[in-house]
UniProtKB/TrEMBL annotation:
EC number: 1.2.1.27
GO biological process terms on file: L-valine catabolic process; thymine catabolic process
Keyword check for Coiled coil: no
The Aldehyde dehydrogenase domain, residue ranges: 16-478
Protein name per UniProt: methylmalonate-semialdehyde dehydrogenase (CoA acylating)
InterPro entries: Ald_DH/histidinol_DH, Ald_DH_C, Ald_DH_N, Aldehyde_DH_dom, MeMal-semiAld_DH
Alphabetical list of SUPFAM superfamilies matching this protein: ALDH-like (SSF53720)
Length: 500
């Protein structure tokens, strides 16, 4: 059986890369090669940017209404192809089919936000700001924009980027993860089918060389990245050094605080779902919980429920979690879990030697849970990005808040409680960009912006919501004064800067 070769998209056409370097795309549950992805040549990257630059000249003049209509077409095509999109996510990423279908839904939210561009891309106006003078702003597209995405959400992360950037009048070059590109490619094909003109949306694949070229290219105006802290820091600095606008959503170490007055069953179930769903491969997962006061007595029950979670291939609908994305990821996760034991944490649930019947080569790691974790242990200081839960304990809410605020990351946090006073105290005193109250994974709906903070984010504008339009546009301010045809004033020279 021939292996599918992933194309580039340049100028609205599928292009076979001329590269000599190809990577295998593996099914994480079986290690079967399901596709091959090219590491694009730098000439191909330049061709994609040139295609976008040329398309921008006409696309930027298309009306807001017509841009919106294309996004309306896209969201309908995504709905109609949900099953196939989810299947491709599960095939190459490994997450369960229900989780993959949920990702399609979150991608749809972002595309639906792009459908609101006719109200999001409005300027401001002051009539008679001075005598006979009007001042108004226009939010103009930037030009060629770039998106670089991680493997863990091959649909949602690109949807955070190209739909709204294109709806704002920009042209786009997307570099998706080379680990699971097929679902992303189908979404791009649907976008072209929806009516995005040739050259407005292009796709290249590759590693650091391709990313660096995109950050350096003189015709690229802005770069959006979602992925690891190490790579994101490099992208932000490299893009900035070459005069690009940049936003980078990066690593995390999110905490869920459970108060003793919380609904016990709901809190425990939501904790386990947020810690172990997608095998922990979410930047908004909850890999740390802080049990406060009497909630510390819930620890044995949390561990027993964790042990009951079912591990299996993503195609098995009753599985709670599938494999991690690659053998390398599994090796790194196991090494970190081993360090937790070596550094003195108590291993309550051990998923390091997870075996799934019928899938001997799968990258499976079972739910793993530690207690007696301290904030200097590697399992706490590093992002495990696997199905691991670290349990800390605190006497008071104030102590829990202090632990979280001392962590350098600020992507998300949540509090489970039935006390409005505790919730209000938490949301006001916590130094984290996204807060959930009885919500385990506080990723906001897409018409609100994604607002991670501190070490989890570089750049002051996040994806989605109103902030994203500010990122993908530049504000042009126009000051105007119009005179009657027979107007006679203006015979004197004025050397002041005031407008009266």
């Amino acid at each position: 059986m021939s292996i599918k070769e992933i194309p580039l998209i340049i100028g609205g056409e599928k292009v076979q890369s001329k590269t000599e370097q190809w990577l295998d795309v593996l099914n994480p549950a079986t290690q079967e090669v399901v596709a091959r992805v090219p590491m694009a040549t730098l000439d191909e990257v330049d061709a994609a940017v040139a295609s976008a630059q040329e398309a921008f000249k006409s696309w930027s003049k298309v009306s807001l209404t017509n841009r919106m209509r294309i996004m309306l077409n896209l969201q309908q095509l995504i709905r109609e192809n949900t099953e196939e999109l989810a299947r491709l996510v599960t095939l190459e990423h490994g997450k369960t089919l229900p989780d993959a279908e949920g990702e399609v839904g979150r991608a749809l939210e972002a595309i639906e936000n792009a459908c609101s561009v006719t109200r999001l891309q409005l300027g401001q106006m002051a009539n008679n700001a001075a005598t006979g003078v009007d001042v108004y702003t226009m939010n103009k597209p930037l030009g060629v924009c770039v998106g670089i995405t991680a493997f863990n959400f091959p649909l949602m992360l690109p949807a955070f980027m190209f739909p709204i950037a294109i709806a704002c009048g920009n042209a786009f070059v997307l570099k998706p993860s080379e680990q699971d590109p097929s679902s992303t490619m189908l979404m791009v094909e649907l976008a072209l089918k929806a009516g995005i003109p040739a050259g407005v949306l292009n796709v290249v694949h590759g590693g650091p060389d391709v990313a660096n070229r995109l950050c350096e290219h003189q015709d690229v105006k802005a770069v959006s990245f979602i992925g690891s802290t190490h790579v994101g820091t490099h992208i932000y600095n490299h893009a900035g050094a070459h005069g690009k606008r940049a936003q980078c959503m990066m690593g995390a170490k999110n905490h869920m605080v459970i108060m003793p007055d919380a609904n016990k069953d709901r809190a425990i179930n939501d904790l386990l779902g947020s810690a172990f769903g997608a095998a922990g491969q979410r930047c908004m997962a909850n890999p740390v919980t802080i049990l406060v006061g009497e909630a510390r007595s819930w620890l044995p029950e949390i561990a027993e429920r964790a042990k009951s979670l079912k591990v299996g291939p993503g195609t098995q609908r009753d599985a709670d979690l599938g494999p991690v994305v690659s053998p390398q990821a599994k090796q790194r996760i196991i090494k970190l879990l081993d360090s937790g034991v070596e550094q003195g944490a108590t291993l309550l649930v051990d998923g390091r030697d997870c075996q799934v019947e019928g899938y001997p080569d799968g990258n499976f790691v079972g739910p793993t849970m530690f207690s007696k974790v301290t904030t200097d242990m590697d399992i706490y200081t590093q992002e495990i990005f696997g199905p691991a839960l670290c349990v800390l304990e605190a006497e008071t809410l104030e102590e829990a808040i202090e632990i979280i605020n001392n962590n350098p990351n600020g992507n998300g946090t949540s509090l489970f409680t039935s006390s409005g006073w505790a919730a209000r105290k938490f949301e006001n005193e916590i130094d984290v960009g996204q807060v959930g109250i009885n919500v385990p994974i506080p990723v906001p709906v897409a018409y609100f912006s994604f607002t991670g903070s501190r070490a989890s984010k570089l750049g002051d504008l996040g994806p989605n919501g109103s902030q994203v339009v500010s990122f993908w546009t530049q504000t042009k301010t126009v000051t105007t004064r119009w005179f009657e045809p027979d107007h006679q004033d203006g015979s004197e020279v004025h050397t002041t800067i005031s407008l009266k």
